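Bug #77: duplicate submission created two jobs. Keeping one. Sequence:
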Amino acid sequence: MKFNKFSALIAVLIITLTACTDLHENILDEQLGGDLINNPDNIEALINPPYATLRHIIEWYDYWGLQQISTDETAFPTRGSDWFDNGAWQQLYLHTWTPDHIRLSNVWNVLSQGISRSNTAIYYISKFQQTATTDQYINEARFLRAYYMYLMVDLFGQVPYREANALDFSATPEVKDRKTATDFIISEIKAVLPNLKKRSVVTSERVTEGAANALLAKIYLNYQVYAGEAKWDEAIQYSDAVINSGEYTVTNDYWSMFQYNVVNHPEFILTVPMSDLVDMGSGSVWINFTLHYNQIFGTYTSFWNGGCTTADFINTFDKVNDTRFYDGRIKSTTGLNQGFLIGQQYDINGNALTVRSGSPLIFVPEFNLANAAENEGVRVIKFAPNPNTPRQFSSPNDVPLLRISDIYLVRAEAKFRSGDVGGALADVNYIRSRRSAAGKTLATLSSLTADDIYKERGFELYWEGFRRQDMIRFGKFNDAHQQRPVTTANKALYPIPTSAIDVNKKLTQNPGY
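Kept job's structure:
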């Protein structure tokens, strides 16, 4: 059986219509679901749901928002009567959230759902006659369960957990603390790794050997944060396994990864398949929430003038020589560049655009978080839109959760922290050597500091949902930046949502909340 983009999208549609939004685990109704769980021909209907939950973790307003808006990379200023939403966006940026913040409960529910769906797949697929296919799908479901647990460990530091065969849902799940959960996640990934296929066999839309090695590398890089002990050698070991596999290539054309309808790009290790041929929901779009109301083009008629980046972040870039700052290949069809949108904005015919009052639409780095003008804040376009899309609220961009350039930088950081500065410098320069703007040369580095690695991760991975994790690891998460004062160290963990504690008294609220 083939798990392809079409079947994944069908699963997304079905699950979006039927998924619960509360904290209760979804239990298959034996009468309604009997044919499903007893017929091996329906195996894809069991493995698709845990995959489909990946779509919900790339929704800009929930998981992505927690990882981005809490950092120096993303802000959602209030603009007149727009973008206040009971202070939700300002609270994320200012680190003034509470356990009742709507985005926290939404993300907790999504990750819980992913764990539950993975357990359902493991349990019922294990009931079929065991074949190479059932073994493969069980291993993939175990990886996905570990992946959702990893995200919960990273954000919240605790994970409610029950075994896949624990069917007494009246019993409260046990709660794994941060170190216990991290060690369990590692053991699960290592257990399934030898039985996973290569990307060249099943594509980056499926869990692969490379995905398992890459996730282990990233977990070990963060192990000191999660469990209080450095594991740099292990991070290097599993990075080496990905890099030396021959399955992935750092591209010489950075922006090729972020065009629409790109499938199985050589950089991609694990992706969320997306399409604008079906209704994916507005959480999966990448341009609507940031572009000004008047930047319409093609079939796009609705923009919301919201999210922007900060002057602190863009000022770290080599704005002339680094291709990651600006690319103009989509301007003729959209009027926009990819990268950072600064200064006067134009339509596809080169006409200067205006704000609603008629003044020039000139994006500036400054913004007032509580009361920003329409043009305040530099905008970011990472993923290129399809200008002739039949659905302006459905993204045609497959989203990489893991990619090879990230793993080179994981290895560079682990080498640097373990004393191999030369090896780290070589990895950073390998990435930089492929990131020069057209006709320009991005300088390689002659020496290396921790701050150089931190900045390079920002250059390479901005707007992809990794900034909070990086800032915590480099000790910068609580620093002051544009319109945000210094915050307290406990903010490096989000609080457990009140709604979660209400249904599981074994959870303990994180310190300071």
